[in-house]
Amino acid sequence: MDITFEQVTHVYGRKTPFEKRALNNVSIHIPSGSFTSIIGHTGSGKSTLVQHINGILKPSAGRITVGDFVIRANEKKQNLKALREKVGFVFQYPEHQLFEETIIKDVCFGPMNFGVSEAEATKRAEECLQLVGLPSQLWHRSPFDLSGGQMRRVAIAGVLAVRPQVIILDEPTAGLDPMGREEILSLFKDLHERLNLTIVMVTHNMSDAANYSDQVIVMDGGKPLMAGAPERIFSQVDQLRKVGLDIPETMEFLNRLLDRVGKKETIPAFTINE
Ligand code: ADP
């Protein structure tokens, strides 16, 4: 599903002393089937931006199109349930939302909430728990017996079991160690490739954005500053540092980036701010 923002503005606490324009006339395009990373300094509007994609937030002005769904400012009657069935949202620390007495019941909750029968939901839950690599001997245990990384997989299986076409990830690796991070991101990369899922990931980790996505959008002060392929975005290191982004100088990061760039016909200038 193609996602388009047209002149979208979002103001929190309108006409209060706390009024804050978190998005300012944003126009962006996220192509169907892409893996897009949204990067930017804290407070630049990343979370606000992605929460418009499944209607958690409504725009104060402008419109968002997600496939056939259109979300406009001031529109009262909207079929958000149908939109949310297509756009899954993995919140930060999604494991905090687990609540059922068994893992399998927790994963069934999402699809059953969208009207899927218990038998079908169970079938999907088993499929998705397999997809996220959770051993079947754990499925009938309490989710609270699991490690943090395993609980996160269960929460992700719950989102996948609804069978969305788009998945929004808000800092999906927050709090995980490097191995857990790599595992979760490889899982999404694999799902993206196998199921042609469109993925939109908010991240503060530049290596993750460079390694896993095919499009990067840089937010700054409620506006997109740049958008494009990671090799193009990360070749503008000086500009990224100016907007407060932490670009690592480790050889590992540069080598991986140069590896990717090397596969393209044109090699953009790569400058490092010493
Ligand atoms: P990011 O995800 O890039 O850190 P956010 O989208 O969370 O940025 O926030 C953008 C701006 O909007 C920030 O200045 C933040 O303080 C403000 N903001 C976010 N959520 C709210 C809210 N619920 N009420 C008021 N202001 C908010």
A few lines on this structure:
By secondary structure, the chain is an alpha/beta fold. Helices cover 35% and strands 23% of the residues. It is globular and about 50 Å long.
Explain how this protein is built.
Forms a stable energy-coupling factor (ECF) transporter complex composed of 2 membrane-embedded substrate-binding proteins (S component), 2 ATP-binding proteins (A component) and 2 transmembrane proteins (T component). This is Energy-coupling factor transporter ATP-binding protein EcfA2. It is found in: Cell membrane. Its EC number is 7.-.-.-. Belongs to the ABC transporter superfamily. Energy-coupling factor EcfA family. The chain is an alpha/beta fold and 274 residues long. The protein has a single domain (33-43, 79-262), classed as Rossmann fold, CATH 3.40.50. The protein contains ten helices and ten strands. Strands 6-7-8-3-9-10 form a six-stranded mixed beta sheet. A four-stranded antiparallel beta sheet has the order 2-1-4-5, with no helix packed on it. Helix 3 crosses helix 4 (118-131), helix 3 (103-113) runs parallel beside helix 5 and helix 4 (118-131) crosses helix 5 (148-160). The protein is globular and about 50 Å long. 37% of the residues are buried. Adenosine-5'-diphosphate is lined by residues 12-13, 18, 20, 22, 40, 42-48.
